What does this fold into?
Amino acid sequence: MKELALKYGCNPNQKPSRIYMTEGELPLEVLNGRPGYINFLDALNSWQLVRELKAATGLPSAASFKHVSPAGAAVGLPLSDTLRRIYFVDDIEGELSPIACAYARARGADRMSSYGDFVALSDTCDAMTANLLKREVSDGVIAPGFTPEALEILRAKRKGTYNVIQIDPDYRPEPVERKQVFGITFEQGRNEIDLNDPALFANIPTQNKTFTEAARRDLVIALITLKYTQSNSVCYVKDGQAIGIGAGQQSRIHCTRLAGNKADIWWLRQHPKVMSLPFVPGIRRADRDNTIDVYISEDHDDVLCDGTWQQFFTERPEVLTMEEKKAWIAQNTKVALGSDAFFPFGDNIERAHKSGVEFIAQAGGSVRDDHVIATCDKYGIAMAFTGVRLFHH
It folds into this structure.
């Protein structure tokens, strides 16, 4: 099949719409549903991300994409009991498969942003992963294969309309890519840089020059995630998964703050008060996620005031105070942070430190590199200048 007609483009008024190959056949097959223009943008970007994560780490990988940027990305490390609970997979009997672990991590990191996502899996989708996908609000999934049982489960999702795309894992695009803007064609070489190259961590200008093996892995995950995130972008990673992604901000400090706030929320969801919230039986997953998000925020009274809390809880929970939140966030450690370009000022490091960042990989090359380095030294942070920019548009 050389081309596939789509219902419409980014918006319903943008017709006609299609995806096609100028040479050869499309390297994918739609096994179920009718993916749209944005679905395919998310699918193809997310597939590249998980393919690179798998190649770099050797671990099954997954990504949750929304509007052409990842909401979550992770490798298939086992889940602790705490993570199983906050990702709401603790009802699954037995150990999760590695690809199911990767998906649970990618989807669970930022559940608010992942609502209605498109999912990418580096490995064949098994029945366990399909069952996790089945109960989430999602537009579709792309993977190199699906077991017969997994495909049967997914074909029944969303009254049979769930989008399932199988991609040829051996497909490699041409080295030059093109796109049009306002009738003008842009052309550039594909960004094929190897972000698992140890040379990226050779230039360490900080006093602390120690990167643990886990930190290097997490920094590679951050950089690969950023390679497919709309710029400007910053990514916080811990224990093999992105825990906060700040995408598409014009100011780098806004990226760092946005991603840091998401990382803080991920950590606060593990606070005992949050984990013990007495939800009413049968509450919808989306309502539960929204309620947790509001409960953690400064607007907690929106779900705790009389006449409202009864909709969500069997009894009124205590407020999670600002002091309790600060004390809990201060316990987060060993977080890795990547940036798709240099940090212009040390204020980014100050913000990153508040969310437990101890390892950084960024391009370097700012006229204020000295200030950035000094701020890292102030907190004992190890930072590598990769010399690589990862803008993506």
User: Anything to note?
Assistant: The longest helix spans residues 37-57. The mean pLDDT is 96.
